[in-house]
Design a protein that fits this description.
heterodimer, A: 258 residues, mainly alpha, 12 helices, 75% helix, B: alpha/beta, Rossmann fold, Alpha-Beta Plaits, 2 domains, 4-stranded antiparallel β-sheet, 14 strands, 26% strand, elongated
Amino acid sequence: MIQWLGVATLWQRELLRFYRDRARVIGAFVPPVVFWLLIGSGIGRSLRVPGTLTGMSYLQYFFPGTILLVALFTAIFSTISIIEDRREGFLQSVLVSPISRLSLVLGKILGSATLAFLQGAAFLVLAPAVHIHPGLAGFINALILLGIASLGLSALGFLIAWMLDSTQGFHSIMNLFLIPMWLLSGALFPAGGAASWLRFVMKFNPLYYAMNILQANLTASWMNPRAHWLAPGIDFLAICAFTLVLIMAAAWAAEKNS
Amino acid sequence: MMTQPIIGIHNVSFRYPKSPTPALANVSLMVNQGEIFGILGPNGSGKSTLLGLLSTSLAPKEGAITIAGFDLVKDTAAIRILIGVVFQHPALDKKLTIEENLKAQGYLYRLQGRKLQERIEHVLDVTGLSLRRRSLVEKLSGGLMRRAEIAKGLIHHPKILILDEPSTGLDPGARLDLWRHLNELAQTLQTTVVATTHLMDEAEKCSRLALINEGTLIALGTPQELKGQIGGDVITLASADPQGLKKFIAEKFSDNAQIVDQTVRLERAQGHLIIPQIISSYPGTISSATLSKPTLEDVFIHRTGHRFWNQT
């Protein structure tokens, strides 16, 4: 069912393309970093949510959220190409080749996730520059989380791109769904200080759980970011489940409608 | 020359979701091994749909298609190994070199190592691209890009090469080259070639042709056979009053006169003899008279009553 040679081929192609298309490297990495610098420095220490942000600058608080935003942007930009690739590009020939749909899905998602992971990790190593010192274990945990989240976001991007037939459609989904999903992950503000209805909504957002883990590992020493109704294990389970379900959904969609 | 059919299309109909009219209606035809089979039709006639079915991009909803004895719906995987597909829109990765594209394609067809390298050398050689192997596809001219597409479609030595409008975007010289290559392939590799086209001169180069209009098969045969179905010559008469002229010819000469694009058109053996008779017995209204040997477009008009480019 899975032809690994085909998976590896598609994975490698994704990396090669990305490497040769500098605009994409910059496009996915620089905007989140600029947001982080501007919003982080702009807000500085002027906002205080009692009991949540004590002792850290907003630049620091916003840091884990930016890692996730870099991964989100990268994953989206590399999966969005599916929309045109299917009708007027490389994917046409993959679809009539003997490789299974599952292999196609895995190759594409793994390629996109690798890029998201690498770009996210490239930002993560800047942590000490803003005096975030998570220690070795914290770094490793953050990387593991980043890997799993990158897979999930790539699968989500694949699923959306597969179901759409125009890139314009993708942009509306991005603004209506993906960016709010990131906003409500705790990237910009901690759930603890949010209105109770919003906190309730955030509980259904898989990125919220990813953010919990990132913050716990990177910035938790200053704060107590966890809402008390969540046990630590739940965060990990939630983001793993999200990733797994989306990969299966992407495979199902590709098999069903091709 | 006559060998067994390698593709069998049996009563195939196809309708796209939300479309009121079928894209294909009850099409049946056979393609023999080693021939260059052309599917000729105007834009929107259903020829790309037919190719979509043959290339396994679409699944037939009615009727059956067999390729090399395999059923298209049940044995899709087996068929995909046997066919090579060259799409109308480029399917090369532009950010990769020709050789990288070929390598990726080979991997998708489970070719590896020395065997793959041999195949790459071979298809580069067949398509005359050996010297450009390390060029990025985005840097290639339209003609070279087409050839690279064909090289890609050939990497696994398919029994059948399927091409959708292969000469799209090619200048006349590159178009001639392309057809020369296709002929060589059919001969040297015994590849069966199935190509759609809307160009008459390309269709002339096929060993057999299917003419398609509005989703139905309207004629099938070698270009010679098809043109031979027209009785002799084609006469076209321009007149200020085509209706009157047509009526007059129908009464006097009892012929198969048709009005096509405001001209009167009839088919007739020994056409040169009848032109003076018509002009002298219906004087003063005919502004020009043309006599020609039948072309494939005449076959099309003969079958449909309208020009090939009717829609524009």
